[in-house]
Amino acid sequence: MLFSKYIAVSFLLFCLALDAANCADPLFNFCFSQTNYTANSPYAANLNGLLNQLSTKVPPTGFGLSSIGRGKNKVNGLALCRGDVSSTNCKTCVVDAGNELRDRCPYEKGAIIWYDYCLLKYSDTDFFGQIDNENKFYMWNVEEVKNPTSFNRKVKDLFSRLSNKAQASPKFYATGELVLGPSEKLYGLAQCTRDLSSLDCKECLDGAIGELPKYGDGKRGGRVVGGSCNVRYELYPFVDA
C-alpha cells in the first residue's frame, strides 16, 4: 500500500517545478484513516474545536498540538509553519489547511495536508512524538545541473550542516547556503515538527536527506516532505532572511 502511494505521488509530481506561488495552493495531501465519522457527530464537533484551537495556538510560535475528546471520539492534531513565516501568514495557512483538508478528506478521521507555508495533520490515533514515515512525498525541479556528481556532493555537505543545526535549534528549523561559484549559491532548509525529541528530529532529517539522491539526483532543486520533517534545496533563495 505504501509503495504504491509513493510511486503515485512521484509520478504525479515529476514535472512540477519548485518555484510555485507560496501558500496559494496545497502541495499535497493524504487521507489516511481507516475509519470515518459522520456529520454532526461528537468526532465532527471535536475536530472543529481542534482546528479552531490550532489556528490560535500555532501562529505565535509556528507550532502547536492539541487533543480534544475521549475514546473513539478523541481527535489529535498538530500544525507547523515554516520557520520564517510571519504569525499572520501562519494563521492564514493553518485556517486554509483545515478548511481544505475537510473538503478533500470528508468524514475521514485521519488526514494531512502540506502548503509551502505550513502543514496540518489530525487523527483519531495518538501520533505525537513518533516519526511519521508513512505520509511523505517528493518534488524536484525538472532542470538538471551541468556537473551532477560535484553538485550532489555540495547538496550533501550543506544538509550535513543543516541537519545538525536544526536538531540543536529550539524551533527544529535551520536554513543555510553554500557558495558554488562566483555568482551561484545553493540554498537549503531543514525542519522538524516540535513534538519529536532532538534525536528523533535528527533521525527524521537524515532519513529524508538520504532519500534526496533517489528522486532529485543532479536536479536544480528538490524536496522530501513528510509528516514529521522536511528538507528542501534550491539554486535561488526561497525563505525570508
TrEMBL record:
It is found in: Secreted. One of its GO terms (cellular component) is extracellular region. PROSITE patterns: GNK2. Residues 25-127, 133-238 form the Gnk2-homologous domain. Keywords: Glycoprotein, Repeat, Secreted, Signal. Gene3D superfamilies: Gnk2 domain, C-X8-C-X2-C motif. Coiled coil: none annotated. Residues 1-23 form the signal peptide. Pfam families: Stress-antifung. Its main location: secreted. InterPro entries: CRR_secretory_protein, GNK2, GNK2_sf. PANTHER family: CYSTEINE-RICH REPEAT SECRETORY PROTEIN 38, CYSTEINE-RICH REPEAT SECRETORY PROTEIN 38-RELATED. Belongs to the cysteine-rich repeat secretory protein family. This is Cysteine-rich repeat secretory protein 38.
